[in-house]
Automatic annotation (TrEMBL):
Signal peptide: none annotated. It comes from Graphocephala atropunctata. InterPro entries: DUF4817 (IPR032135), RNaseH_sf (IPR036397). Transmembrane segments: none annotated. One of its GO terms (molecular function) is nucleic acid binding. This is DUF4817 domain-containing protein. Residues 4-57 form the DUF4817 domain.
């Protein structure tokens, strides 16, 4: 019985856990995946031999045809095992560990339908953030029911901070897998950074950016709201400024007493 790529993946992982003991691997696989077809020790041996001899987990159904021959390397099993065990390793690292060339490693991985997926960066969320976001969605839906163009009058703004050692380089981060694992890494963008920047968007207009000197505190943010932001908004039509809502993400400087007092006085109509 032919197995799928996902089954072959799990079979190789189980075989590695059992230190290539085919009988133990067959038993463990059946226990771990009771809803699947249970493969015999012979099937595990056949899979291991095929990977070792052809570099592929699937049978060759194109015998006799003029096709590109797969990599026939004794290192194929080592390369696949390394990629499955440490999917974040680079092809260069796998090549060094397996004693193969990088070109051979890439051919083995590609012929086995493995793809180097890129990491996705996302903002780290706390436990309370989920409920707050849901409440905001309900509130936003009500506003849009009243005015479909409501969000064109919102000044969306945020403070971005940049470390002296730079951001994560996604170009050099890969995750080898048969299927996209949607690999993400939580990043923290608001503490202990060396350069703070503010920027806003309202409608189709970009407001700013503005660079803060030193750390962003309640005092520096209050100064910005009173003395810098009005100048940045000078290019907006008066009717837009009168209807404008100000969006903030609730960073600590936004809660300073002077900041909240200024916002209540300036945006009293909007609450």
């Amino acid at each position: 019985m032919a197995y799928t790529s996902a089954e072959a993946f799990d079979m190789l992982m189980v075989l590695g856990e059992c230190y290539q003991n085919f009988t133990a691997a067959a038993t463990l696989y059946a226990e771990r995946f009771p809803e699947r077809h249970h493969y015999s020790r012979k099937a595990f041996r056949t899979l291991a031999d095929r990977v070792r001899e052809t570099g592929s987990v699937h049978c060759n159904h194109n015998k006799g045809k003029q096709i590109a021959r797969p990599v026939r390397s004794e290192k194929s099993a080592d390369v696949l095992a390394a990629a499955l065990q440490n999917p974040q390793d680079s092809s260069r690292r796998i090549a060094v560990d397996s004693g193969s060339s990088q070109a051979t490693v890439l051919r083995i991985l590609h012929e086995n339908k493995m793809h180097p997926y890129k990491i996705s960066l996302h903002q780290e969320l706390s436990e309370d953030d989920y409920l707050q976001r849901m409440n905001f969605c309900f509130w936003a839906r009500e506003r849009m029911n009243e005015d479909p163009d409501f969000f064109n009058d919102v000044l969306w703004c945020d403070e971005a901070t940049f470390r002296s050692n730079g951001e994560v380089n996604r170009h050099n981060m890969r995750y080898w897998s048969y299927e996209n694992p949607h690999w993400m890494r939580a990043v923290d963008n608001q503490r202990y950074w060396t350069l703070n920047t503010w920027c806003g968007i309202i409608g189709n207009r970009i407001i700013g950016p503005h660079f803060f000197e030193g750390n962003l505190t309640g005092d520096t943010y209050n100064y910005f709201l009173n003395n810098v932001l009005p100048n940045l908004l000078m290019g907006l039509p008066n009717e837009v400024r009168q209807r404008m809502w100000l969006q903030q993400d609730g960073a600590p400087p936004h809660y300073a007493i002077a900041v909240r007092k200024h916002l209540m006085n300036s945006f009293l109509i909007n609450g």
